[in-house]
Amino acid sequence: MNDNQPEEMVKCSPAVPEPPSVTVGLDLPLKELKMKLLKDEKVSMLVLTAAGGCGKTTLAKMFCQDQDVKDTFKNNIFFLHVSKKPNLDLIVHQLHRRKGSELPAFENEDMAANWLQQFLKESRQNPLLLVLDDVWSGSESLLEKFDQFKHEGETDGYYTEHFVTEHDMLRELAINQASQDPIEHRKRLFLNICGNKLPKWLTEQKYQAIKAGLLSISTDGAFSAKWPNMQVPEAEVLVLNFETKNYALPGFVEKMDKLKVLILNNYGLLPAELDNFELLGSLSNLKRIRLERISIPPISRVLKQLKSLQKISLFMCDIGQGFVKILDALPNLVELNIDYCHDLVQLPANLCDLVHLKKLSITNCHKLSALPADIGKLVNLEVLRLRSCADLLELPGSIRNLKDLKFLDISDCFSVKELPEGIGAMCSMEKINVSQCSKLKELPASVMDLEQLNEVICDKETKTLWEPFLPILTNMRIKVIKEDINLNWLNKLPP
């Protein structure tokens, strides 16, 4: 570990993530999951598996946020992301951050394992729920290590923990199927590199050009090699997975003329710094970029204008002061997604110059306290999602100028006390989500002018605010989000 870690990162204590405000078809699976892990004393580890997109992560989040589960496990609920490359050291550090304690330096995995075992012993006063999210095939050794701790703990009676793990085998199956064809003819090419051991065919430049339309390269924390030249002229999607604190885009990216989508996933502990990002300036077809755990300021100093880029997504990134320059380089942006970027306090004013923007989604940025006063300049905006921005105080009055806005989501914005007086001028509004806005006590009279409004998502407390408008807004349907905290159904289910 780096001894010079920023103070704010060391003290970070992320909460268990919230599930979406609206879910479909997961009530019965949730009941079954609760029955298994709360009712059956013989079950201490459960593997949840399904095809991609079936809602495994959402179900696990719903389970963690369920009131009965909270009553059972109290403050001993931990939700940890594992992903492609299982890393016990990273898992242990996530636990440290969750507990709000100082991050130790582990020289090897055995030291991390010893700390984890001691942590489990110290948690014996209450049951412990540990969710390992997004566990891939090939991670059996990681699960076996937890199981080993379980059996060792049973001898002195301290082990009462429960585990839920998520396991998507179909992704690995798709990779295996794509690997059956000769390298030069594969439509999707996946490279998994350990250390600096590059494939022999790559170092020997065996193939002049690779025809793959999708190229995925995964490297671990020991990778430091210089990339040999690769020719992938047909590639439209590039996925780069890495774990190092500093990562340089391969030089061959500059010649990927057909590239449309770039995905950078940092599976390390802290946001990584990127080099060679300026190479993207030559890619005239690049439409989408997704960055995970990336430090934005270093990028902003070298980024050239990307006039073709339409969508950018930032997940758990270090925003810093570089966000202003990033937005200046993306004049034709249509969609901006920011999720779990904890240092985002205020959106820059130049965000309002992105006149082509149609979707703005800022979620789980708990320190965000204000939106730009001129947000009404985003006249083409159709979706504004501000979910789980706990410190957001208000919506600017200029929001009334968003005549094309169809969906407004301020769910779980606990600090918002009122909606703008001129909200009725938003003549295209079809749907609004105000669930868990506990300080919202009244609605402006102009709500009656929202003639296109057909769905209001709210909770039991805010439902009464909308009911008086039902005779006027005849197409409006109020959907109340409910939490089932009754365990009586457990006795009615078959054994």
TrEMBL record:
Top-level taxonomic group: Eukaryota
GO biological process: defense response
UniProt keyword annotations, A-Z: Plant defense, Repeat
UniProt cross-references to SUPFAM superfamilies, sorted A to Z: P-loop containing nucleoside triphosphate hydrolases (SSF52540), RNI-like (SSF52047)
InterPro entries for the chain: LRR_dom_sf (IPR032675), LRR_R13L4/SHOC2-like (IPR055414), NB-ARC (IPR002182), P-loop_NTPase (IPR027417)
Single GO term (MF): ADP binding
Positions of the Disease resistance R13L4/SHOC-2-like LRR domain: 349-476
Domain NB-ARC, residue spans: 30-139
Pfam families per UniProt: LRR_14 (PF23598), NB-ARC (PF00931)
PANTHER family noted in UniProt: PLANT BROAD-SPECTRUM MILDEW RESISTANCE PROTEIN RPW8, RPW8 DOMAIN-CONTAINING PROTEIN
Stated name of the protein: Uncharacterized protein
Record organism: Malus baccata (Siberian crab apple)
